[in-house]
């Protein structure tokens, strides 16, 4: 490189450094992604906004909590959210004899609620107490706002293969975890108790990661207990513990499973699912697994 060219090169480098925000303001944290809220200018700059990130670090807890954890609130009963799949204009799967999935899920959920309440150990909430249509997002929002310690979504399966029958339990699949994360960062933080918009993105990502990992192991733990109990009372499909990206499983801080009670596309299962006694038998298995899950949690 000859001398004038070298000089030119250094001049360009110097210009670049000086113009970079990190250089101009050494305290500025380089951002990985632009944050919508920080890009938009404040509406009334006259009012000094005390940035709340301070608050998160001023108390004894170094990081904001995503949702209150049960073990730290032993005075209250665990909150169980039961989510009856489909409803209203969405019938879900339709059986060979015309059974609507939404009717089975509504009835099973009501039974489960009654059985759980009878124990006196739980606060039980139905995401939809009647036959109404409810967005997936709304179901998750209700669970988070209601401080759910466990979220069980109840469904009935359908398959092209008419011989497929039995119950199965779903937890969140690995491939859906980024979707769960995006849900947090792209949706005005609707899913978070803390406002992550004031945090730098890497911090937010770490918080979601931590919550997600804990939730994941809790969901897996509950799914295993549930399968073990269901196994004692009913037929399970071959691969009974499955993983999927169902929207209702996406909350990064609420342990959640999706229970498929059986196949409406199978004549035998459809008949069974229409029987109150069979649904009650299944729901008693769910209660036993919930009892086990929370007795383990408390230890
Ligand atoms: Zn369904």
From TrEMBL:
GO CC annotation, single: outer membrane-bounded periplasmic space
EC number: 3.5.1.28
Keyword hit for Cytoplasm: no
Signal peptide (UniProt feature, chain positions): 1-24
Xref: SUPFAM superfamilies: Zn-dependent exopeptidases
Keywords annotated in UniProt: Hydrolase, Signal
Domain named MurNAc-LAA: residues: 140-291
Pfam families with a match to the protein in the record: Amidase_3
Catalytic activities: Hydrolyzes the link between N-acetylmuramoyl residues and L-amino acid residues in certain cell-wall glycopeptides
MF (Gene Ontology): N-acetylmuramoyl-L-alanine amidase activity
Protein name in the entry: N-acetylmuramoyl-L-alanine amidase
Source organism of this protein record: Litorimonas taeanensis
């Amino acid at each position: 490189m000859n001398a004038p060219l070298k000089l030119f090169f250094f001049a360009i480098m110097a210009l670049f450094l000086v113009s970079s925000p990190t250089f101009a303001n050494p305290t500025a944290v380089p951002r990985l992604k632009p944050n919508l809220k920080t890009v938009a200018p404040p509406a009334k700059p006259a009012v000094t906004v005390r940035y709340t990130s301070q608050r998160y670090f001023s108390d004894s807890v170094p990081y904001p909590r995503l949702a209150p954890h049960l073990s730290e609130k032993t005075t209250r009963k665990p909150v169980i959210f039961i989510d009856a799949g489909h409803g209203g204009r969405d019938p879900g799967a339709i059986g060979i004899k015309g059974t609507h999935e939404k009717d089975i899920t509504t009835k099973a959920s009501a039974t489960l609620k009654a059985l759980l309440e009878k124990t006196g150990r739980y606060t039980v909430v139905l995401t939809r107490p009647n036959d109404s249509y409810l967005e997936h997002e709304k179901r998750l929002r209700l669970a988070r706002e209601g401080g759910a310690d466990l979220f069980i979504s109840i469904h009935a399966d359908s398959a092209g293969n008419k011989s497929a029958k039995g119950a199965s339990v779903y937890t969140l699949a690995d491939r859906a975890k980024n979707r769960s994360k995006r849900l947090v960062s792209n949706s005005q933080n609707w899913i978070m108790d803390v406002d992550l918009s004031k945090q730098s993105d890497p911090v937010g990502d770490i918080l979601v990661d931590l919550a997600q990992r804990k939730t994941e192991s809790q969901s897996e733990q509950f799914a295993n207990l549930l399968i073990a109990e269901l196994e004692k009372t009913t037929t399970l499909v071959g691969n009974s513990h499955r993983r999927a990206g169902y929207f209702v499983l996406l909350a990064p801080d609420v342990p959640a499973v999706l229970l498929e009670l059986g196949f409406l596309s199978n004549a035998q299962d459809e008949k069974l699912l229409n029987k109150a006694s069979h649904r009650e038998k299944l729901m008693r298995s769910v209660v036993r697994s919930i009892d086990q899950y929370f007795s383990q949690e408390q230890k």
